[in-house]
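Holo model, pyridoxal-5'-phosphate. Inputs:
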Amino acid sequence: MQAVGTQEIIALEQQYVLGVYSRPPFVLARGQGSTLYDTEGNAYLDCVSGIAVNALGYNDPGITQAIHEATETGVLHVSNLYHTAPHARLAQLLCETSFADKVHFSLTGADANEGAFKFARRYAREQGHDEKYHILAFSNAFHGRLFGSLAATPRPKYQDPFKPLMPGVRHAEFNNLESARAAMDEGVCALIVEPVQGEGGIYPASAEFLQGLRDLADEYDALLIFDEVQCGMGRTGKLWAYEHYGVEPDILTTAKPLAGGLPIGAILMRQKVADAMHKGDHASTFAGGPLTTHVAHHVLRRVSDAGFLAAVERKGKLLMELLAEINSPHTVEIRGKGLMVGMELDIDTSPIVAAGYKQGLLLVNAGANVLRFVPPLVIREDEIEQVATKVGDLLQQV
Ligand SMILES: Cc1ncc(COP(=O)(O)O)c(C=O)c1O
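Output:
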């Protein structure tokens, strides 16, 4: 690859790339394990993982091998017009490791949620309910930025510049069953919820809330959709976050870490949902291609291992304990599950994220005042100790 200077790349981006992202003043060039390096050789311990994507970290030999196996065939893409083995095998493994009977692949998390909405509307129509098309979503949720998923993401900053949104979406308060019940009627075909809210600030749902939503969905013959795009695939120390709750959905969406950094999403569903969908009802050119599905099969096999998941749980507890020991007067609450941890402060966290870069630490906000920790799931315990030490130093500086 051509050697380039940091300033040159930043100048090129400023000239040629749409300015919808705020990026810090360094250029990432390579990674190893849980550490990223910039073009000047500075190291950053990564608690972001490409926003909960790089579950197996950087330069993982198993992923490299899986990419090699997939590319050796010479077939990167054939379209969903044809059968390929990796597509079928990944769907099988997803079903065998979850509640689901059938899988449909997408490209991103938002795309998976859009598909789930379509499937829910189709399901209602198949039952003969033409007016049953509303989606019930919850406060503080994040389901994506396409028109359907954006309509289910109730934040004025994201929604207002792009109105009108997709009609037929209503909202109730997260973790408030009475509010959900009040919003429910025969017009609702699906309820969508993140078992652990990510972008909204790392808020786990309560068990009563998820069970209550399950009961409401059953009462009204609506579908319960769990958006596990961020909290699924081992992030919380169980393969699927719903396993913490003993409540199963009718549809589950997953994406981010599924192919270890390659773009993929998947919609997992019960047979009754699959039965409502017919040939030609939904499709995508790239989704479920042989490269991404072969790599995803490797990632899912690794992440679903009981020992791997137990380590995630243990490391998550360690991280929460060490963050609590910092004992900063600014700490409001430390919460989360597994390696999906939020540290809520009584101050704006953006300056802390920015100061973290100078300490060699990548962090990302969740909301205005929550520091989010979603490191690679392979992060080591000594690295978690380093993270906590760095965060302690940063909090002392404020
Ligand atoms: C819970 C959840 N759902 C959906 C999405 C959207 O995923 P994507 O950015 O891949 O479209 C995200 C992204 O952060 C997410 O956290």
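The mean pLDDT is 97. The first helix runs from residue 6 to 16.
Archived with the compound record.
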